[in-house]
Design a protein that fits this description.
Layout (H helix, E strand, L loop, with lengths): L5 E7 L3 H8 L4 E9 L8 H5 L6 E8 L6 H9 L9 E2 L2 E2 L5 E5 L2 H17 L9 E4 L3 E3 L7 H4 L1 H10 L2 H9 L4
Parallel strand pairs: 6-7
Antiparallel strand pairs: 1-3, 1-6, 2-3, 2-8, 4-5
C-alpha cells in the first residue's frame, strides 16, 4: 500500500453536494467541507453566506495519488459542476458558491490548466469555462453538522441535490460521457 498523500481543494458550489462523489472513490483518504479563498480567519457558515468574507464553500480532499491520481480528481470535479456559470452553482448564487480549483503546487496547476483547456475544447458546453484556477489558500473546516451531510441527512441531501438542479444538470451533460 502506498504511503503518499496529497491535498486537492475544489470549490463547486454547495459543499454538501461535493463530498459524496469523491468520498466513494478508492484512494480517497478524507473529504472535508470548508471555506477557502477569503480574508476572514476561521469564518462561520453564517459569515460566508453573507458574501463578505471572500470565501467559497469548498472541499479539501486528502488522497493517495498512486491509487487515484490528481487527473482523475479533476475529471470527477468537472462532472459535478457547471463550469460556465460564474455567478454560483445551480440554485445557490453569490461569491461563496462560485467554482474554483485551488492548486497546492506547480504540477497541480499544470494539470488543472490542461484539464480546463481540454474541457473547453470538448464541445460539451456552448459557453466558455469560467472556473478559476487559483493558488491554494488557508482552508477552514466547516462546522461539524456540514461534514458528510449526505450521510447524516440522506433525505434532505437527496431532495437538495435534485431540487437545486445539480442532479439534472449532471445527468444531461455527463450521463453518457463518464
Amino acid at each position: 500500500m502506498s504511503e503518499k498523500q496529497e491535498l486537492a481543494t475544489f470549490a463547486g458550489g454547495c459543499f454538501w453536494c461535493m463530498v459524496k462523489p469523491f468520498d466513494e472513490q478508492p484512494g480517497i483518504i478524507k473529504v472535508e467541507s470548508g471555506y477557502t479563498g477569503g480574508h476572514t480567519v476561521n469564518p462561520t457558515y453564517e459569515e460566508v453566506c453573507t458574501n463578505t468574507t471572500g470565501h467559497r464553500e469548498a472541499v479539501q480532499i486528502t488522497f493517495d495519488p498512486d491509487i487515484f491520481p490528481y487527473e482523475k480528481l479533476l475529471e470527477l470535479y468537472w462532472q459535478q459542476i457547471d463550469p460556465t456559470d460564474d455567478g454560483g452553482q445551480f440554485g445557490d448564487r453569490g461569491e461563496s458558491y462560485r467554482t474554483g480549483i485551488y492548486v497546492h503546487h506547480d504540477e497541480q496547476r499544470k494539470l488543472a490548466e490542461a484539464s480546463k483547456e481540454k474541457l473547453n475544447e470538448s464541445g460539451i458546453f456552448q459557453k466558455p469555462i469560467v472556473t478559476e484556477i487559483l493558488d491554494a489558500a488557508p482552508f477552514y473546516p466547516a462546522e461539524e453538522y456540514h461534514q458528510h451531510y449526505y450521510k447524516k441527512n440522506k433525505i434532505h441531501y437527496e431532495r437538495y441535490h435534485v431540487g437545486s438542479g445539480r442532479a439534472g444538470f449532471i445527468e444531461s451533460h455527463w450521463s453518457d460521457k463518464s
